[in-house]
């Protein structure tokens, strides 16, 4: 199943097996083995590399019935373009964006974020009893 999905997505993008192998940084023969289901247990790292260049995700390659990722030009409005342009102007590169995406998706960040929200909610419910008086002479 993994091999069939990879092959179909590769052909849909118009990539040869050589091109996808080069883009993903895997050998052509290994990719061929995956597509022909000779190798039916590739590592998640290899699948992640392949999925990225096929504009999909690992879950879809593994059999989830999620559609492949939506094309960027179909969802990026002018605000997104502006955000990206500003980030690039400030020196953020593709690797930084990928790292940021992984950080946002990580369980650790999600947990820290929810704990931070809980902390802010607790703090915002506290009232201060301090009164500051300023007297001019």
Automatic annotation (TrEMBL):
Keywords, in A-Z order: DNA-binding
One annotated GO molecular function: protein dimerization activity
GO cellular component term of the entry, any: cytosol
Matches recorded under SMART domains: HTH_XRE
PROSITE patterns: HTH_CROC1
Source organism (scientific name): Paenibacillus nanensis
Source domain of life: Bacteria
Boundaries of every HTH cro/C1-type domain copy: 6-61
Statement: the UniProt record of this protein carries the keyword Metal-binding: no
Taxonomic lineage of the native organism: Bacteria, Bacillati, Bacillota, Bacilli, Bacillales
Gene3D superfamilies with a match to the protein in the record: lambda repressor-like DNA-binding domains
Signal peptide per UniProt: none
Pfam families, A to Z: HTH_3
Record-given protein name: XRE family transcriptional regulator
């Amino acid at each position: 199943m993994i091999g069939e999905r990879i092959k179909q997505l590769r052909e849909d993008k118009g990539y040869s097996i050589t091109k996808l192998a080069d883009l993903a940084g895997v050998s052509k023969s290994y990719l061929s083995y995956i597509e022909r289901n000779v190798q039916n247990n590739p590592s998640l790292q290899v699948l992640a590399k392949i999925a990225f260049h096929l504009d999909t995700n690992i879950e879809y390659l593994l059999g989830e019935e999620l559609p492949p990722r939506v094309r960027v030009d179909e969802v990026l409005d002018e605000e997104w373009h502006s955000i990206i342009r500003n980030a690039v102007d400030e020196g953020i590169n593709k690797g930084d964006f990928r790292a940021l995406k992984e950080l946002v998706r990580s369980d650790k960040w999600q947990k820290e974020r929810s704990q931070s929200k809980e902390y802010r909610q607790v703090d915002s419910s506290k009232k201060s009893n301090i009164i500051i008086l300023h007297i001019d002479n």
